[in-house]
Amino acid sequence: MRKSGVCPKCGSKDLGVERDFRLPGREFLKIISCNKCKFVELYTIDNDERERKIRSGNIFLWSMMIIGFVIPIGVVLLFVI
Ligand SMILES: [Zn+2]
Question: Exposed, middle or buried, 7 (CB in 10 Å: 0-12/13-18/19+)?
């Protein structure tokens, strides 16, 4: 389905775009659905792509932590100075 671009169930070429799908166990998958019969196929992703996603998730966490620290400190400094 991913390579052929054809739904194996109904033969339609009207497939949805490939989307990211994340299982609760931190497993990343790709999901492709057929717009005609709503059949869904799941794909595992490459290891390096998975690592990139985990890393970008970590960067997001870090930036949230930094923002969470910087804003209160900035507010305190504004009042003190
Ligand atoms: Zn289909």
Answer: buried
Distance 45 CA to ligand 1 centre (A): 22
Strands (E), 5-70: 19-22, 28-33, 40-44
Determine the distance separating the centroid of ligand 1 and the alpha carbon of 20, expressed in angstroms. 19
Q: Are residues 38 and 58 in the same domain?
A: no
Q: Residue 60 sits in which domain range?
A: 47-81
Distance 42 CA to ligand 1 centre (A): 14
Q: Is the pTM of this model over 0.85?
A: no
**11 and 1 fall within a common domain:** yes
pLDDT tens-digit profile of 16-29? 988 888 877 777 88
Count of domains for the chain: 2
